[in-house]
What we know:
Layout: E1 10-14, H1 19-33, E2 38-42, H2 54-68, E3 72-75, H3 87-100, E4 104-107, H4 115-130, E5 139-140, E6 143-144, E7 152-156, E8 166-169, H5 174-182, H6 206-220, E9 226-231, H7 240-243
Helix pairs in contact: 1-5, 2-5, 3-4
The site of zinc ion (ZN) has 5 residues, from loops.
Amino acid sequence: MKQSPEKVYALAFGAHPDDVELACGATLLKIISEGFSVAVCDLTRGEMGTIGTPETRKTEAAQATALMGYHCRRSLDLGDSKLFPTEENLAEIIKVIREFRPDVVFANSPDERHPDHVKASKLVTEACYYAGLQQLATTLNGTLQKPHRPAHLLYYIQFKHLEPDIIVDISETFEASRKGVLAFASQFYQEGTTEEAKTLIKRPEFLTGLEARARYFGEQIGTRYGEGFKLSTKLAISSFSTAFPGTPNR
Ligand SMILES: [Zn+2]
């Protein structure tokens, strides 16, 4: 894993460590398999979580990062349950966007069960816009950063069922993405344990539920597995035949 502040194609933000892997890990693996770089930024350390210390979750995030093959992973430590749209929080996210200069940003959905996900969505959405403003100055290691507005912002689907605007065929990467999810072992049910599930994702059936959703979204587009996304703007079709492939008459 490189630590250098290079431009990446996609930057995925999550309110908590594991949000990204649980909701869009297979799509990120697909992007990497197509030869593009991906970075991940966790807005908090997940210190308010019912299970697992911040140290455990940090180790798990590092393991997930190595298994998934991300270019880099950042943790901003903005404070679990404190993701308010303050100037300071926005500046921290803008700095990361300007550092990695992504074409595509992934974020939590604006409509979600967990209030941190809703707050993270709002913060990242605003940061993507403000990061493009010339007059808004941020510095990194004493150097003034250049403005940068990501071209595309996609919201991944988590707990709450949302009707996706697009579905990505993840049939080739779904199995491999499970490694990234399972790296966050403290959060999931462990075979043979009798402890009571304290959280929704600690239930034995949670991972089966995730697979069921991927199957359901896959069914919608005629593939084995799919991952659904909401778009922040309408999808523009520049090459019609790339979007709707067929046989050319030449
Ligand atoms: Zn979360």
